[in-house]
Amino acid sequence: MESPIDSYLRRIHNEIARLKDGAPYSTIPAMAQVDPDSFGIALATVDGQVYEIGDSREEFTIQSISKPFTYGLALEDLGCEAVDAKVDVEPSGDSFNEISLAEGTGRPANAMINAGALTATSLIKGSGGQSSFKRILGTFSAFAGRQLSVNEKVFESELKHGHRNTALAYLLRSFDIIEDDPAPVLEDYFRQCSVLVNCFDLSIMAATLANSGRNPLTGKQVLGIGSVERVLSVMMTSGMYDDAGAWISSVGMPGKSGVAGGILAVLPGQVGLAVYSPPLDDHGTSVRGLATAQRISRDMELHFVRAARAGRSAILTAYDVTETPSGIRRSVESADVLRENGHRARVIELNGDLLFAGAESVARELSGLPDSVEVAVLDLRRTEQLSDVALRLLTALRTALAEAGCELVLVEADGSISASLAEDGGPVPSFSARSEAVEYCENRLLQHYGGQEVPDHVPVTASPALAPLGEADALALQSRMTARTYDDGEVIRRVGLRFGGVYFITSGKVSSSSPGPTSERVKLNTLSAGMTFGEMALGSSMRQETTVRAVGPVEVMLLGEDAIADLEATEPRLALALWKALTRDAYTRVEQYLRESAVRIRE
Amino acid sequence: MESPIDSYLRRIHNEIARLKDGAPYSTIPAMAQVDPDSFGIALATVDGQVYEIGDSREEFTIQSISKPFTYGLALEDLGCEAVDAKVDVEPSGDSFNEISLAEGTGRPANAMINAGALTATSLIKGSGGQSSFKRILGTFSAFAGRQLSVNEKVFESELKHGHRNTALAYLLRSFDIIEDDPAPVLEDYFRQCSVLVNCFDLSIMAATLANSGRNPLTGKQVLGIGSVERVLSVMMTSGMYDDAGAWISSVGMPGKSGVAGGILAVLPGQVGLAVYSPPLDDHGTSVRGLATAQRISRDMELHFVRAARAGRSAILTAYDVTETPSGIRRSVESADVLRENGHRARVIELNGDLLFAGAESVARELSGLPDSVEVAVLDLRRTEQLSDVALRLLTALRTALAEAGCELVLVEADGSISASLAEDGGPVPSFSARSEAVEYCENRLLQHYGGQEVPDHVPVTASPALAPLGEADALALQSRMTARTYDDGEVIRRVGLRFGGVYFITSGKVSSSSPGPTSERVKLNTLSAGMTFGEMALGSSMRQETTVRAVGPVEVMLLGEDAIADLEATEPRLALALWKALTRDAYTRVEQYLRESAVRIRE
């Protein structure tokens, strides 16, 4: 099925193709031979999906769209301060070939006008055996994700007819803004303007800027976020010359146009847009390019104000551990202690990006915890962008919580956030499953409030699953069981096995996991001494639904399938009591899952 | 516990307070009497949380920070086109009192310089018995969320000493940009500049702009999103006069400063920032205000480029209905049909904001579905911002899917999205619980591929829970049951009740719900003829965990607690078979919950 974004692009391409205003650039003879009807659009997302229509693979020279990329390379090479000393960041509101040098110093207003762009080019030096131009072309190619080349005919023609730029370069030399011979700078500049690109390339170059400098196709970090920030800031105010204000109001994205008819726009975090259509308006901007950018911005709500609308609440849900207990079987006294003190451990599940707004809401939630809370669990498994500000806030929160007598505990895939927070004050407890973090909380509460932690060893007769039975019955069942031991990591029950009896863990821990829908292994929970497994295979398919592995050395008592059959035949009363106990035990689990669903799904 | 954001603000407030550069504004005598050490900061989130430090409640006159708000009111009153005819949107790069009128027309460059601001004020007319100034003050007050007032002394002083503004107003009159008598316009303008605000107010005014025009404290929509977009666009390029470029590069938020020492910055979708400190730099901007904005932007990553970083994937998870079946008991043949054809119905769970990037990824997922998929379920319960572009894309997707022979089904709280999509092509099936949508899918597949839908009536003997028993045993159990009927909406089992037996639904449907952690009612699932309930109360607490209600007329057969006790005493073999069947049935449910957890939690 065709994506509605493709059909949308086809529709507006059709409509905007009817615009016949403007004329192709004619100052450079080699550029005059273009088809004014050529018209391509490409829209690339920050994860590298490209939607294209029309002449999106037709090549043209990049011209002034080269400026932000060379400026970015200069920033990356020399740092902001050194570049700022040569080129300011102020909008000039002038046309592209305006001279706009500061009185006295000769410093160009910004790197998007020719004077500033020439200066930026002059700052790129050869290195590592690569000429300055090789480095420029290499950067453009890294942005595009493919090796680009130069249209030599256009280059020769620009070199021959670029009188005004030649004048500008020498003027800049007179102010010592350009410090060396202007001739090779001019050559580099004209060459960079003559690099051949198509809409697809430009959309990827734009998406690389939108993606904080990382090319979405190659995954390569082409520019640091600091340089990207600077480049897009300057493009925002000065990318469209004397159209800047109207462009920001009607398109609302940093943009850049070139006289060959290309135009590029960047919505940080979302998309890169490129259009190609040679006829230009009086400002030197592609008529159809501008119309397309305005139309797509409006229809797709890409204006920076609209695109950043509110409401990303980072907190998915928050609840006391009593609401979704670990499921570990406790003694009656311990269960009472936990019921009474469960509000002292709070789980906060986060969601989405942790940029400022998200991190702030986490800070607010944690800061507002009642003094009675002693353990705060942050479940970070669903968060995607953990910004530096979020890490700094978490570090500060961790310290402040510790001072208030509350421990921070994390649930995360790989312990990396815990490691980042660990610098001061020792390691932050980190678990890969929520149930393990909850178990940790419960044990903390039991230590403080006098219940018992999970004992290392639980005899079958003390198993909560058999609690409804008297001790004599439990002993009678135990006499029908077989003892087994397993080493760390050993698989005890594998997914797909037929029912093989009920396993009572008497010592150690096991973890159960299940294949996810896309077949990664999903860890479900950890079971410890006193708990049972294996009954799951009694379900609809009569097959084991999870794989159970030993975590450390494990001892179990197995009430096998044959033992159960024999029990039913010889001691129906005890068999009845067993099945009744197992039913009850199963419903204890159903109940637990229901509780977990209830805290997650609100309607 | 103190929020780390408060302690952070205290720290930078301390540091920046040491900056002693600049001098308070002295042109207006009534404004000269200020304490140069006054220094307040307020940071407001789009949901109305305000962090303040220092002299954040000290009042000062709003001065030029009034400009974006009056401009916004003019846009709201007259629309962009009429306002644009009077005031352009181009950056002037000039200082605040620059004349900057277009040659020939006299049109001011933008509404942030005095000429443009005077023009914007002239566009506000009295209406509904309110004078023009009352309307301006009313708008400012609505932005601040409290009634603001005017410092009459400053007003009188400005009126007396504002020669340059008076000259500007008459110049604008000469060009017919101001169309009426300039005197009352000047009076309104000086009055609007003399409105008293504090940092708290300004931060809320900024947060209202950040929040798409809705005041986060009062909930009132003060300005439409179109006007907000325009105001913030102009502030982005022209809010800081000749500092615009440096401001965007180093702060990266639309901002506005006033000569009384106030400064305001807006990060769309996230925060509003306000600072007050009277000493000004050469551009008329508060020295500490600028330093604070730069510092907070850097530390909190509020620059528009950084604040919009990538990665908000809207798709939480996607799976075939076979992976999380509805849980409705089917005949063996129907179950086979569903197992074989479950891949034809796909569930896609969405998450977070559906702005362009999110909507695009949904479009991509739906467009890329294999041709074999006949029903696509979008679970929208976790999405927060459903932009117009998302609605338009969903509408287009729905049509395109229909043409490709695939039906779109929604899971959403209230059916409102379904209603929005319904315009063409009839209603879109919409359910408030995922399990209902999955049941719908299963029924569609059974219709197409020859299984049976859920029958209206299922005798106890055909209940899947009793499937392991022979017919004679099932009949023997049935003879111990009592028939009951319920009307639509009637509560059959209420949460907290003790175990009262097992209910077999023989006709109709029931829904089960449970109180959520914050005590909203959470609907868990729907059970239909053939299914059982009531056994849940066998769990740990021996109490009913859910409330079960009739959906339409319902008939059940109840195997009561007494009947079970009698059965155990008189027919232990049958009792054993019953409990064994119930255990199996319980594990079928555990299994289902496990599957659901597995598709949701990846590690």
Automatic annotation (TrEMBL), chains A, B:
Species in which this protein is naturally found: Arthrobacter oryzae
Binding positions for substrate per the UniProt entry: 64, 114, 158, 165, 189, 241, 259
Catalysed conversion reaction: L-glutamine + H2O = L-glutamate + NH4(+)
Name this protein carries in UniProt: Glutaminase
Keyword annotations from UniProtKB, A to Z: Acetylation, Hydrolase
InterPro entries xref list: Beta-lactam/transpept-like, cNMP-bd_dom, cNMP-bd_dom_sf, Glutaminase, RmlC-like_jellyroll, STAS_dom, STAS_dom_sf
Signal peptide start and end residues: none
Keyword Hydrolase: yes
HAMAP family: Glutaminase
